[in-house]
Amino acid sequence: DVAMYAAKANGKGQVQTYHQGLLKADAPRLTFEWQLAAAAAAGELVIHYQPIVSLPNINCTGVEALVRWQHPERGLLFPGHFIEIAERTGVIVDIGAFVLRQACADAAAWQHAHAGIPLDVHVNVSARELDHDHFIDTVLDCLAATGFPAANLILELTETVILDAPVAIERVRALAAHGIKIAVDDFGTGYSSLTTLRTLPVDIIKLDMSFVAGALTNTVDRTVISAIVRMSAELGIETVAEGVERLDQQRFLEGIGTNAAQGYLYARPMPAASCARWLEGNLRDADASDDKMRGKS
Ligand code: C2E
Ligand code: MG
Ligand code: MG
Ligand code: MG
């Protein structure tokens, strides 16, 4: 807009000034987009894993894969800085394929390390990825290559992703027919939560953290979240609460029968090596409490 203003004010040389201004203004953005397009191949994408735990016993049942970009100059960037751009430019297709492959490989290794425990891995999927003709093949190839069980792969989709394109609905059904599980992410924040449940084979509902945050202070949030959990139970859908930060939130969620929780109260998203150590600790604690219940300790 500065360039436009300068161009108008300058009169005669306006076209040239405008173009120079445009180039200058867009150079950093274009550089960022090119860097992002090359990031996966350059090995700059990193996956952090955040554990998901069962309620009320706090045993880890799975992890969510959350991508980060180790930018050469800007440091570790969170998805909020680049996912939208990746979706707009289409680079999300490559990023998504990388995340799927790496997450299944890491989770397969953790399953082996712990004698085949049924650890789930959750992977976020954008509309643009589901829209791509090769998406189903990408997912199936990834399972075949890593040996990771389909039943332990959960694709996290938002309501908008699912209902934006008719082809998306067919693809999600096809994936479900292969035994892959479907979670609706940020449930309750879109316009069509209930339609999603009528349209698709949903296995898991992720209760958005805004409801979790509001549950203890706001009557509407408390009523909505309780109703979603009750409805899910009747439909045979599991519930996972996102963004659990405090014990009073956990207590409330347990009270209404939420199946699982994820949040800083248990663990922050962390690199694969740290997650492997965290899993060992959590599984050891789970064994110890099983032994206690069987009277062994
Ligand atoms: P999401 O799938 O809803 O992921 C949950 C977000 O909440 C993550 O943010 C996580 O770090 C954050 N979080 C977890 N526990 C807590 C808590 O107790 N308190 C608070 N305040 N936040 C918590 P993150 O990692 O920045 O990711 C943001 C979003 O980016 C994700 O939201 C997801 O929509 C998207 N995303 C992340 N990785 C990928 C990916 O590989 N592909 C795609 N398409 N999208 C991704
Ligand atoms: Mg998610
Ligand atoms: Mg979410
Ligand atoms: Mg969210």
TrEMBL record:
<protein>
    <submittedName>
        <fullName>EAL domain-containing protein</fullName>
    </submittedName>
</protein>
<feature type="domain" description="EAL">
    <location>
        <begin position="29"/>
        <end position="283"/>
    </location>
</feature>
